[in-house]
DNA sequence: TTTATATATTGCAATATTACGATAATAAAT
DNA sequence: ATTTATTATCGTAATATTGCAATATATAAA
């Protein structure tokens, strides 16, 4: 099939899965790490740094934006991408809650 | 293509991506949560609980085992699956390190 | 030894993901 | 207005993932 049966799982389970999926690609991990190191990040810089084609980077940025992990501010003809810190922290907390509650019930 | 260019990323980036990928499916999240709630977990119980076919559950368990998130002890003709607590904690720490170091450099 | 039960593996169809070339869209500079 | 630079979108090919039926394997019970 290839299709996940999201309807048989609850909202929390699906939400966690979506977050993990966005983070499940080394290019996106590398993009996040690179963005966090720069004062102002421009997509084309990311293309040079990562070593993937510009459309590919653009697509990965879109996926990171889909869960608000990053935000992009338009500066003239460039776009400055930044980590969305409140969301970043929120997601970190969400994942920690998942890890803590799951292990606390463990046999 | 469909193939991730792992060779252009470093070991840490690929390792994080693999962990996130294993966790990026609601069925596997649900399995982990269910396993953690039971004293002794058997695959067939999981099949009843989750609502996916037995081969599908077996495949998901295999993926969870691939990064040692769970361990399965054979008890007669049944298998008792448990969260692998040391690995669980190790991965939680790894993810927190990623979240903390990434956000600390943020603009 | 046969039968029943529990789990794993194989093979396959449907869908998703990754990556990129071509092209479009947008805005600054000339 | 045209050119240049930057990013986004579209279309497509290659590969990966999800899920299940059929089957295999393994162990306990009869």
From TrEMBL, chains A, B:
HTH arsR-type domain span: 8-106
Molecular function, one GO term: DNA binding
Keyword check for Transcription regulation: yes
PROSITE patterns associated with the record: HTH_ARSR_2 (PS50987)
Keyword DNA-binding annotated: yes
Keyword tags: DNA-binding, Transcription, Transcription regulation
Protein name (Swiss-Prot/TrEMBL): HTH arsR-type domain-containing protein
Species: marine sediment metagenome
């Amino acid at each position: 099939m290839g299709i996940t049966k999201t309807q048989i799982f609850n909202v929390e389970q699906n939400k966690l899965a979506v977050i993990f999926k966005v983070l499940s690609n080394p290019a996106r991990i590398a993009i996040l790490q690179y963005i966090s190191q720069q004062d102002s990040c421009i997509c084309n810089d990311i293309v040079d740094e990562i070593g993937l084609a510009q459309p590919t980077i653009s697509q990965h940025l879109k996926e990171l934006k889909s869960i608000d992990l990053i935000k992009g501010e338009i500066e003239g003809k460039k776009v400055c991408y930044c980590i969305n810190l409140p969301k970043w922290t929120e997601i970190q907390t969400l994942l920690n809650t998942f890890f803590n509650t799951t292990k606390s019930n463990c046999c």
